[in-house]
Amino acid sequence: MTDPEPQAGPPAERPAPSGSDRRTVLATGAFGALMVLAAALVIIDAIRLPETNAVVGPAVVPLPIGILLGLVGAILLGQSVLRLRTAPAGVQWQPKALLRLAGMVTALVAFAVLLPFLGYVVTSAGLFVAAAMLLGATHLGRMIAYGWALAAIVFLVFDRLIGLTLPTGPWGF
Amino acid sequence: MDQLGLLLDGFASAMTPGHLLWALLGVTIGTAVGVLPGIGPALTVALLLPITFRLEPASALILFAGIYYGGMYGGSTTSILLNTPGESASIVSALEGNKMARAGRAAAALATAALGSFVAGTIGTLALTFLAPVVADFATTFGPPEYVALMAVAFITVSALLGPNLLKGLAALLVGLTIGLIGIDSQTGQPRLTFGVDALLDGIDVVIVVVALFALSEAFGHLLTGSGHTTVQPLRDRAVLTRSDFRRSWPAWLRGTALGFPIGSLPAGGAEVPTFLSYSMEKRLTKHPKEFGHGAIEGVAGPEAANNAAAAGVLVPLLTIGLPTSATAAVILTAFQSYGLQPGPQLFSESGPLVWTLIASLYIGNVMLLVLNLPLVRLWARLLTIPAYGIYAGVLVFATLGAFAAGGTTTDLLVLCGLGLLGLLMRQADIPVAPAVVGLILGPLAEQQLRRALTLSEGDPSILVSGPITVTLWAVVALALVTSIAAPLLRRRRVARDAVHNG
């Protein structure tokens, strides 16, 4: 799969996140908010658990975890709000980054839904092509060949050799 | 001498042609995947979990031992030639080794890393052989209260060590603990956090969480930031050491090993601390201080040895008390659990032949790595020219395969995608994913032990501090908490004072 295109490379070329730039602070705030939401769900779920005969019921661990989730989430959210104004600009995302991410999520959902109907080789090859193109590959034909070859090898090794049953689809692979 | 006999039995089992083949396959796959940039040993093992699903336990664990050591080895190649550490413990190799490579000394850097890894891996495995049964014997005296305290130590130290600060580490840990709650409560049969979704009644498979948080989030991250450009340093010579390089390397290997194994064996150890300690020790002891920061061979030799010795050390708490103290160890624990094996003191008594076969295969894998890798280093270096889009598209294919193999339903793949997005948010927020995996794996075990302890005492929580071991362990928890809160404050105050002092 050696390719002369320039997209090659590791994350090392990206500037490392400093941990206090604007994007990190925003992401931390979003994560904190998500934790607070999760805390509410965990606590409500724990409270509605019925009493049992056990000395220690099923809610004894979820309750403190829910409370801690809420506390830590609230602190992260609070810290982010305080730091947001002074946070410097962080790592620049590439053009259409969120669109690419949405495309990848769509490809994964399509893979999950179509796998039982179209079989492993076709859907995995499709996933590889979609992922490679979204990640910056330019030669569609070459990606289809690589994707098809990888999916076929994986199918042969895991399904036929190791015995892990993979969905076959209407054409038997 | 009992251990020696058991180890020889282990060798007899590990030296069968079938097992040798698995070991060879493990080190080859481990090295190949470990070499790929951005893929460290934890991700390597996670991605390759499905390979072992249909194997008998001994073959699978031998394969894993090979993948684990091979992944560590491959990571150093990437660090040196591409300046891309697969995990934090390889940062130092990247620092000093890549400088050597840029100065045209890539072959010497790779050779000292390979030989250092071999020396440290062998001594570390030897120490594991004799230490592990002793620790396991001691751990058989542990009851539920001791286990609760021990897991509290693991939770706090992992949160404090594997993240930028305690708060973010705790946030990650809580994510793992919460995911661990999903499913039917094993003691009362009550469904928790399932929200009426039948597919969640069995909980979320650890493999899916591990693959999503490590592999998917990494691939998603590349979508946002782009993949940059490769700057692989060319490799001109054979990977051999000159006499002078060897003279400078071997003391560093031994010092690195002496630091790496004992620290790696501690529940709070991990591989990062000894690696950095080794680097600073070599910097202090070197006769070539001017070379440091510009490609000093001791700066690669010591930390690489410390890194590998710690990897063997990490197996001590993992095998003897079931405590994973690094991300890779957490994934290996998952592999054990997928075979219905629970690492801990009983592992040695109940599955002794299996454990000794595994330990013997670590020695074999180590030798294979050296024999295989020094001549083939050019081939591994060629892997670094694979474009990032190819690597991460391949990672996605293997990630979905792993999730499907673990669960086998569309829901599992959708959960994988959702958790991958959560992992991406965590990476963007600079929240480490490793404590989440540790929390997910140890959370249900800690809950089980806590409820067992409280049932024994009829609900009296004082049982949790009822013996000298528990009191000591809770003191360690308190100390770790105070240290991780106070240390950054002191550091900040010192920086502020220095700033004022410097004008």
TrEMBL record, chain B:
UniProt xrefs under InterPro entries: DUF112_TM
The residues covered by the DUF112 domain are 20-437
The keyword Disulfide bond is assigned to this record: no
Bilayer-spanning residue ranges: 20-49, 61-82, 106-135, 147-163, 169-186, 193-216, 309-333, 354-374, 386-406, 463-487
One Pfam family this sequence matches: TctA
Q: Which UniProt keywords apply?
A: Membrane, Transmembrane, Transmembrane helix
Protein name, entry field: DUF112 domain-containing protein
